[in-house]
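Problem 12. The chain below contains 212 residues. Write out its predicted structure in token notation.
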Amino acid sequence: MQSVKKAFRKEMKLAVAAISPSQKESLSHLLFTRLVALKEFSAATRIAYFLSMDDEIRTKEMIEHSFNHGKTCFVPRYTKTDMNMYKIFDMDDVSTLPRTKWDIQQPEDDLEAREDPIQTDGLDIIIVPGLGFGRDGGRLGRGGGYYDQYLERFKEALPEQKQPLLIAVTFDCQLHDTVPTSNHDRKVHVIITPTQTIYCKNEEKTEITNCS
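Solution.
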């Protein structure tokens, strides 16, 4: 399975690399309009995003829209062994977050001043990245297992009503009928591309209960 995943990741990276920077921006905006049209998104008050790498859907417009509509936003902080989400305060805060050696912006030196949703009121939605997605909700990440491990800790720490709806955002070329996954890989509930919104048929919930 690992060799199959590795080959699939390579294929997906090549497909995204063929999209020009200007196309990535315009496609990301199309996806943004689909995301904000979701009733689940409108109802949500606490949303975790990722801060985009070059080969990912741009999330800046989503985050800015969320701040403008009074939503509380969170982003990941990665270490060598795990990932946690921390609150961000506004777009100025986002712009000053330091970059890691992987060129990922993340909170670093002031974590005590930032809310950790596992320790407080949970999340309504997590916007999930990935290299490939299946229409059944299957997700192929980069291989670090960060999101799967985080979601498992989230599930153990908080009751069902504080568990998040998982929304994947991805380019159309990364969407397939199925992707190679293992038993421990968590499925997403909704997949959004620039042209499609898919409610996945899996055992997980597909509606949110507002955390606030």
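Discussion. Confidence is low (pLDDT under 50) at residues 206-212. Students who got a different answer should revisit the alignment rule from Section 12.3.
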